[in-house]
Amino acid sequence: MSLAFILGQKNLTYDPAGLVALYERHAPVRDAYDLAAAWTGVDVGLLLRPGDSAQRSRNTSIGLAAAMFGIADLLGGHGIQPAMVGGISLGAMVSGALCGAVSRQDVIGLLAHTDGDQRPDRAELPEGCVAAVLPLGQTYESFYGTRPGIWFGGDFGMHTSGAFRMLLLSGYRDALDQLAAGYPPEYFVFSDETVAVHSPLRYRARDVLARIAADLAFTDPAVPMCSSLEPRVLHSADQVRSEFSRNVVEPVRADHLTGQMRRLGARLGVILGPTLPRDGFEFPFPVVYVDAPDDIGQVVAAVREHDVLLPT
Which molecular function terms from Gene Ontology are attached (predicted)? Predict the structure, then answer.
């Protein structure tokens, strides 16, 4: 009978209109963006609308993290606090701050420093990632097989149609292109990412992040933090610190995250920011999305409708 905050991955193609409206209308969201801008030296306009700037990837990460912090604070002003938190990819790092294990400034600083390292190790072998359809009844191995230069990067869960799961495949772009050529075009949606996220090719970024995180102050979470790397709940500072660096190179699974939330008694989930497709995936409990001003009232109504017990 509890409330869960769910935080999704970096989205390079989201429509910023809803977040801009939240920034303009609500002081908690404005404060979160303004702090992120002050901590990083990035103009708040670029955090709200990353556009096609040279630092688009970095600015998107920082801006979405600021949005999630601001939305959490805005909901907190309505008395809506989570009993548990958890995230996928970018969302896992933001969750570390929302659960109280690390400061927001340190998370923003990590994103500003490590997300700028977006260079493939081998320039002659461009990297990338793709969202790939896995039809119902087939396994990753039976459908895509195992190919050199491609790694399983994540499973975002069953589509609400019940017809397929959506996977993340990462690796060398030529290998991904060759794989996609053998299937209908609607089976693959290529990302604008230029690195193979959540794959062993990101070992350098993992090592950089681990070195920086080793000098940061982590504490035990004040509320449970659910992992998307494996089916477990993080309760210690060391576990959260390790999650940050592992998150760079290991695959993510939405069912690890939401399964633990359900085990902990989640009755309702709130998805912060435009980080997961609206009504795109199944969850083991009802969810509401917050990425625009009108969504706040829907969260308040959903908490009442589902008789959610809020932390005091």
Answer: transferase activity
pLDDT in tens, 177-205: 999 998 888 899 998 888 999 999 999 88
Tokens at residue 217, please? 């102050």
Furthest C-alpha separation in the chain: 56
d(CA 250, CA 198): 5
Q: Which CA distances in Å does 206 have to 11, 116, 201, 250? A: 20, 13, 10, 10
Convert the pLDDT of each residue in 90-105 to its tens digit. 999 999 999 999 999 9
- Write a three-state SS string for the chain: CEEEEEECCCCCCCCCHHHHHHHHHCHHHHHHHHHHHHHHCCCHHHHHCCCCCCCHHHHHHHHHHHHHHHHHHHHHCCCCCCCEEEECCHHHHHHHHHCCCCCHHHHHHHHHHHCCCCCCCCCCCCEEEEEEEEECCCCHHHHHCCCCCEEEEEEEEEECCCCEEEEEEEEEHHHHHHHHCCCCHHHEEECCCCCCCCCHHHHHHHHHHHHHHHCCCCCCCCCCEECCCCCCEECCHHHHHHHHHHHHHCCEEHHHHHHHHHHCCEEEEEEECCCCCCCCECCCCCEEEECCCCHHHHHHHHHHHCCCCCCC
CA neighbor of 163 nearest in space, from 133, 130, 131, 188: 133
Residue matched to tokens 């009442």: 304
